[in-house]
Structure formats: C-alpha cells, structure tokens
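Batch manifest line 354
LIGAND: S-adenosylmethionine
JOB: complex structure
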Amino acid sequence: MPSSSVNYLESRHDWTRQQVLALFAMPFNDLLFTAQQVHRSHFDANRVQVSTLCSIKTGACPEDCAYCPQSARYDTGLEREKLMKVEKVLEEARAAKAGGATRFCMGAAWRSPKKKDMPYVTQMVREVKALGLETCMTLGMLNDDQAKELADAGLDYYNHNLDTSPEYYGEIITTRTYQDRLETLDSVRAAGMKVCAGGIIGMGEGEKDRAGLLMQLANLPEHPESVPINMLVKVAGTPLEEEKDLDPFEFIRCIAVARIMMPKSHVRLSAGREAMSDEMQSLAFLAGANSIFYGEKLLTTGNPEANKDMQLFQRLGIKPEEYQQYADETEMEAELSSRIAEQQNDPFFYDAAK
Ligand code: SAM
Ligand code: DTB
Ligand code: SF4
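JOB STATUS: finished
ARTIFACT:
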C-alpha cells in the first residue's frame, strides 16, 4: 500500500496528485482490497442503486463534445427530436418504476435550458416525483436562478460531468470551459440539490488525466453524492469513433480509486456496460461501484437488457437498493449502520476499521 499512515476511511478534500497516482500504482489486488474495505465501511456491499435514463430532448446539440452522438457537428445518423411531451415522459417513468428503478434521470441535448423550457422541465420533475421516484436531470449548464427553479420543483439530483482532467479537457470540448462546468456544479450545490458528477474513461487520456479528474471531483468542497464513471461508447461519426480500447483493468482501477477518494458517494458503473463482460462488471462492483443505469437504452445508445442485468444481480447475490425517504441525515445514517452491522455478523466480514 502507498502509505500506512493514510486513513482511507476518512472523507478528504485535499488529495494531492502524488497521492492519487500512488493509488493508481498499487498492485491490482491491494487496490481492490482497499477499495472493498472502504466500501464496506460505508455501504451494504451487496446493494446496488438502480437508475433509468430517459432522453427528453434528443440530438441537434450545438456543443462539440468529441464523444457525443448528439452533437449537431457530427453525422451520427441520429434523428433529432423535440422536447418530449410530459405525458410521454411519465409513461416512461412508470415503466422504469415497474421495472425496479428507483431514480429516473432525464437528459436533454442542450448547451443549457432556455427560459421557455423551464415550465416543462419543472412540471416533469413534479410529476415524476409524484410517482414515487427520485428525480435527476442533466440539461447542460445552469445558472443560480435555473438551479433554484429546479430545486424548488423538487429535483433531487442534477448531473453535470467534468468529463476528464482540466489538462485533457481542451482535446475533447472547445465550446464550454472547465470553469463553466465547475460553476454549474456550484450553482447546483448552492440551490440545495444533490450533485451527480463524474466523467468518461477511454477517450485517449492518460492515467494522470484519470487521476486529475478524480482529484477535481474529490477536492470539491463536498463530494458529489453520485459519481458516474462512463466508459466511452464509441459512436460512428464522432471524432472518437476509432479510439483504441482501454485495458479493462485500467477502468476497474479508476472505479476503485474513485471509491477510495469519495468513500460515501455512490459510484456509478455508467455508460459502456454493453461492451463489458459479466466478469468485468463484477470486478467493478468489487472495486466499489454501487449504482448502474438499468434499461435497454442509455440516452441514444444501447445498454444491457434489463433481464440480463437482473440475472447478473442474482448470480452475484446483489439486491437493488430500495428508495427510502428518510426524515433526515441521522435517520439515514442509522439505517445504514444497522445494515453494516448485519454485514459484520457475516463470518467472512473483514473489519477495515481494526
Ligand atoms: N447536454 C448535457 C450536458 O452535456 O451537460 C446533458 C446530456 S450529456 C449526453 C451527459 C453526459 O453523457 C456527458 O457529460 C458525458 O459524460 C456522457 N456521454 C455522452 N456521450 C457519451 C459516450 N459516447 N460515451 C460515454 N459517455 C457519454
Ligand atoms: C452520465 O454520466 N452518463 C449518462 C448520464 N450521465 C446522462 C449518459 C450516457 C450517455 C451515453 C451515450 C448515449 O446514450 O447517448
Ligand atoms: Fe451536447 Fe451534452 Fe452531447 Fe455535449 S454531451 S454534445 S452538451 S448533448
């Protein structure tokens, strides 16, 4: 292990590049063992949160994100669609709930929402929430007022990814800055919503960029509650379509380091699962991933079939996390502690705190 004086069970916001690179450099088994210890001290290790995505506005996006099939600048054969009617969104949300999802994530191919869009998206939030689902949206950049409007409508999470390190960012996106992204995350936090922020792995970045991305996320004043780690989905027509495959172990390392650096966050094994074997996904869970996107489609690209995911959960003894509405943080901590205590009665439990 890199340093015996580091207490990996504490939440920290002062990670140095050297420390993060030292985590990446650990022997694979040591890294996974450490990540699993950290995971078990904060979570029920056999529960995975299940979210479903819905593209409420598809294609024709003015931005130039090199990975994205929805950018108007690349010919990816995607049909552009108008903002989805609220009733259609609700239909999809009901189906997601019936399928076992607890969070419904609505995504729009926008640089940022326009004034005229806000009444529709806030209505979506209110009505999806009324179905008993957690709500998440990803609509591009937000200012303080827009974030407040969404928070007032009851939006639980806002997703806005940093995507990569500040140093590599310019290779991927030129139409908005890293600072713009950080400011959106500030607005989301200031409005009182939970933050969902992560990135994409496999875009030709180096390990130092993966370390740089995780450092940015973990050194935010508060860790994002949800950290999606996407593996690039290579879409024909995008500048990254020919990007070479990433060593799967490098991806798993990234999940493990995210788990260690943000011990209380849900780390989502996000886009790219269709290209992963069951064994690779199970390694990601072992490394501390505890959330997935569930349902046959992400926003515009494919995802494993729902029944294949449920079979994998069954084979691994994983249960979907239930949606609990707690009165406050204390009640939530109490519930988690009792789950962790149950886990400690297991003869194979390894107490990381000892
Ligand atoms: N337009 C909004 C924005 O970019 O903020 C929201 C939707 S955008 C599709 C949400 C995120 O999806 C991106 O930030 C990126 O991290 C992820 N994403 C998009 N295309 C992807 C791909 N081909 N592979 C992996 N992740 C992708
Ligand atoms: C995130 O980090 N990944 C999701 C969600 N947030 C919005 C999106 C993945 C998109 C993959 C490409 C597509 O389906 O268009
Ligand atoms: Fe537009 Fe979002 Fe795609 Fe970038 S990632 S092109 S902002 S939809």
